[in-house]
Amino acid sequence: MHIDLPEKRYYSIGELAKAFDVNTSLLRFWEKEFDILKPKKNAKGNRMFTPEDVKNLRLLFHLIKERGFTLDGAKEYIKAKPKKSLDTFEIIRKLEAIKSTLIHIKNEL
Question: pTM (2 decimals)?
């Protein structure tokens, strides 16, 4: 899944929910369930997600929504392969972005 987000320091929960096409309540639930999601909260208590949080959220979305992992299965996968899983997922995401760009260029020709 390709997610279009502008380059920013912080993203609101609403922006991410819209980009991932999920409810904000799901993002709040995942925040409680997974230790890798740690959004900052401002004085009002609004969650502000960093680009690192977005990477982790993409990994969670991929594992749970696309690959069909259960919550416990996703936790075990992340715990067993913490750094490797993130690196592998980032490589796959970048290759998919390159593929979509090349397909777009091909269609333009």
Answer: 0.73
pLDDT digit string, tens, across residues 98-107: 998 999 999 9
Lateral strand order in the sheet of 40-41: 11-12, 47-49, 40-41
Reported as a single tens digit per residue, the pLDDT across 39-58 is: 999 899 899 999 889 888 98
Contact 89, 59 (CB under 8 A): yes
The tokens for 20 are 């991932």
Please check whether residue 41 is in contact with residue 26, taking contact to mean a CB–CB distance below 8 angstroms: no
Separation in Å, CA 59 to CA 23, 46, 101, 103: 17, 23, 21, 24
Q: Please give the DSSP secondary-structure letter assigned to residue 9.
A: S
Say whether domain 11-108 belongs to CATH 1.10.540.10. Answer: no
